[in-house]
Amino acid sequence: MYLKCGSLDEGKQVFEEMLIRDVVSWNAMIAGYVKSGYACQAVELFWRMQQESIEPNEKTFICVLMACAPPVSIEEAALIHTFLSMYSFESDIHVGNALIGMYLNFRLLNDAYFVFKHMTMKDVVMWTSMITGYSDNGRWDEALNLFQRMLQESVIPDEVIFLSVLSACASLYSLRFGLMVHSIIINAGIDLNPFIGSSLINMYAKCGNLHLVHRVFEQIPFKDTVLWTAIVSGYEQQSEYGKALQVFDDMLATSINPNEFTFVSVLNACTGVASLDLGMIVYSNIVESGIECNMHIASALIDMYGKCGNEEDMCAVFVCLPITDTVVWNAIIDGLAQHGNSESTFQYFKQMKHHGLEVDSMTFVGLLSACNHAGLVDEGLYYFYSMLVDDEIKPSIEVYVCLIDILGRAGQLESAYALTWKLPLEYSMSLYTPLLSSCRIHSNLDVATRVGESMIKLHPQRESTYVLLSNVHALKPMRAALGTFDFDS
C-alpha cells in the first residue's frame, strides 16, 4: 500500500520488519525503487534477494530489467541477463520487452535486435520499442525496413510507431515512404491529433512539400501550440520566412501561447528576412511570455543579431547569459565569423576550451568560416587537423564545404577537387557547388569542366548546375580577348 502511494521510506520499513518475505513482497519493493527513480538500489535489492535464496519469477526480472539504465552499468545489466538465461523466462513476451528496453537504454541496438529476432512471439509493444530505438538513434533505414516487416506480419501499428516512422521519413527526406505512411494512418481511421499532425507537417516540410504541410494543418480541428509550432518551423526550415511570420501572427490572433521552440523558429525567420526590428518585437514577446531565455532562444538571438549586423548586441546577449552550453558558444563563434572578426572568433574558441566545454563539428564550422572570410588558409587547415587529431571529431558535410571553399578561394583548386574524391558520394553536390564558384573566380576552366561533368552525372536534371557551368565558360572568350589586348599601348 505504501509503495503504491509513493511512500518509499514507509514501504521499506514495513518490508524490513517482515518476518517472512515471499517473492511478491520482494517484487513490490524492487518495483517501488524503480518507480521512485532509485535504479541502483533496485539492482542491489535484486542481488540481496538471490543471497537470501528467494526464487525470482517473471515479474522479478521485468522489474529489475526496467532498472537497468545509466547510472547502472552495462556490465551489471549484462550479468542480470546472463542470470536470467538460467531460467525459462526469456521466451516470455513481457520479459522480452523488458530485455529489449534494457539494451535500448544503453543504445546497444544490435543486442536489442538479437533479443527481438529470437523472440517467437512479438506484440506491438516489442515492434514499437525496436522501431523507435532505430529511429531515435539515427538508423532510419532500419526503422523503415522493420516497419515494412511489421506490416507484412499483419501487426497493427500504434500511434507511437507512426511518430517514429514519420520522424525517420523526415530524416531521410523520403516523401514517397512518408506518403505511404500517411495513407496507412488514414485507412486505419486514426485521428489526426496534434501529435500525429505535427509529425506529418514536419515530414512534409523536410521533404519540401509545403502544399501538403498546409493541407494537413487545415485538416486538424484542434490546433494546439505543438501543431502551430510545427507549421511555423516547417515554413522557416524551407526558407519561407514570410509565411512563417504570417502563421506566427495568426497563432497569436487565436490566443494560442507560443513555446520556446515557436520563438526559436520565429527568430530564425526574422534572421532570414534580415529584419532586426521584427526580431526585437519577437524578443519583447518572449520577455512578456515569461519564458526563460534558455540556450535555444539565446543562440537564436545571437544568430539574429549577428546576421542582422548588430555585433554589439550579439556580444551583449552572450555576456549576460549564465548559460555555459556548447550551442550558445557555437552561436557567438559563428556570429563573429560572419562579421569577419577572425581574431575574436579564435579568442572565443580558446575561452571555450579553457572553460572545459565540449566542442563539436559546428564549432569548427564557425572557425573555418572565420578563416575563409579572412583568407587564412594555413589557419583553416590547422583547425581542421586539430578537429580530427586533438578532438577526434568526425567532420560534418558543413565542415567539408567550408574547407573546400577555403582552398577554392585561395586558388588551390586541384587540392580542393582531389579532396572531393576522398569523400562519400552523397556529399558531392554540396561540395561541387562552392568549388565551381571558385573556378569561376579564378577562371580555371580545366577544373570547372571536370567538376561540371561530375555534377551533371549525379543530377542531370538540376538546372543550377548548367547555369553555374555556363557562367564559368562565359569567361573563356573574355580571357581570350584580354590575352590579345596590348596593355602598354
Automatic annotation (TrEMBL):
Domain of life per record: Eukaryota
Coiled coil: none
Keyword Repeat: yes
GO biological processes: RNA modification; system development
Pfam (any one): PPR_2
Placement of PPR repeats on the sequence: 22-56, 123-157, 224-258, 325-359
Keywords: Repeat
Any GO molecular function: RNA binding
PROSITE patterns cross-referenced by the UniProt entry: PPR
Record-given protein name: Pentatricopeptide repeat-containing protein
